[in-house]
Amino acid sequence: MFFSTEHIDANTVMMAVLSVATFVNALLRHRAEWAANRKASHLQDTADKIHTLSNSRMGAQLQINTVAFKALVVASQRLALMTGQEADKAALAAAQAGLMEAERGLMEHLIQQARVDAADVVMNVGKS
């Protein structure tokens, strides 16, 4: 035998058991923290992907709105020129105001997205 059990008393056994229990407890706690961090990281990745998709769809919708208002302005201009009626001129003015608002919304979205994209690039420098 490598060691004799004759000189091991109850306190030594208790200390050894406590040491092993402390080690196992620390190991389990570390494993739980690792799993929680991994889950949080996965949730953040999923949230980032959803946010990117939402922003992409928002940009597409704003572009569609701008194109639709441009078409409405063209149609309203033609109608106002053909009829010369005040109601048609008012409709043209409203369509032009709508186009300006749609273009402004699209531009604001593109600017904000560019800021977010630039911040993402800065945060990911050197991570690859």
Question: Within the CATH hierarchy, at the fold level, what is the topology of the domain at 46-128?
Answer: Methane Monooxygenase Hydroxylase, Chain G, domain 1
Number of E-state strands: 0
CA-based shape: rod-shaped
Cα radius of gyration in angstroms: 34 Å
Q: Gap between N and C termini, in Å?
A: 54 Å
> Low-confidence segments, ≥5 residues, pLDDT <50?
none
Using the 3D structure, state the CATH architecture of the domain at 46-128: Up-down Bundle
Q: Indicate the proportion of strand residues.
A: under 5%
Contiguous helical run count: 2
Helix and strand composition category: mainly alpha
Q: CATH class of the domain at 46-128, anyone?
A: Mainly Alpha
Q: What is the percent of helical residues?
A: over 70%
**Mean pLDDT across all residues, rounded?**
86
Report the sheet with the most strands, covering strand number, pairing sense and barrel closure. Answer: none
* SSE arrangement, N to C: HH
